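[Discussion] Sanity-checking designs against the backbone

I'm trying to build intuition for which residues belong where. Below is a structure token string of 202 positions. I'd appreciate it if someone posts a full sequence so I can compare it with mine line by line.
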């Protein structure tokens, strides 16, 4: 049985996980701007996306091509991480879904304030260090079913141009998840539509 997460270490651990996941996300978002030798075919149908055993699920509209993300590494603190990048080449939109085991057999509740606060704190800190023009534009807590989700909205330059991002962090049991919606900064309508799809309109 997984060991309970000791409260004094929870914020630090959540922040550390968010740092590693955000690093993976930034690298893959930047790489997605480069031409691929064999680009994945875009789906002509809506796609169901699921994380945390189905507790965090949503539907992406047609037009997104799915590509598996590289496995996490010990060096980045994301060993065991897995995920998928969904890219709409026509709209220059990316949605990344990543899951990573919480280290040391620790666990978190579905709506743990301390865990979510630590995760968002770590994410914001990492983005500020990795992206020179990173600017947080909003932050709020959502509830999707029984799952607490921290949403961080921001702008930054990635992949050669200005982007708009909404990042969703959540945890359940032994796993943490990070979902990132990244679009062109000028495409507010498309960004809002994707965020609405991820949050079920919340």
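Best answer:
Here's mine. Compare freely.
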């Amino acid at each position: 049985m997984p060991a309970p997460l000791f409260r004094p270490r929870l914020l630090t651990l959540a922040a550390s996980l968010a740092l590693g996941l955000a690093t993976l996300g930034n690298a893959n978002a930047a790489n997605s701007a480069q031409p691929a030798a064999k680009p994945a075919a875009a789906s002509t149908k809506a796609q169901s996306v699921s994380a945390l055993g189905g507790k965090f699920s949503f539907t992406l509209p047609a037009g997104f091509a799915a590509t598996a993300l590289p496995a996490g590494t010990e060096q980045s603190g994301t060993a065991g991480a897995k995920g998928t990048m969904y890219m709409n080449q026509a709209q220059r939109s990316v949605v990344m879904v990543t899951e990573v085991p919480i280290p040391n057999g620790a666990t978190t509740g579905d709506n743990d304030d301390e865990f979510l606060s630590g995760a968002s704190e770590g994410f914001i800190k990492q983005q500020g260090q990795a992206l020179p023009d990173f600017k947080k534009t909003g932050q709020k807590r959502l509830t999707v079913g029984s799952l607490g989700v921290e949403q961080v909205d921001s702008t930054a330059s990635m992949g050669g141009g200005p982007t708009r991002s909404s990042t969703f962090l959540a945890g359940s049991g032994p796993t943490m998840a990070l979902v990132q919606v990244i679009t062109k900064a000028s495409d507010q309508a498309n960004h809002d539509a994707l965020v609405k799809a991820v949050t079920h309109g919340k």
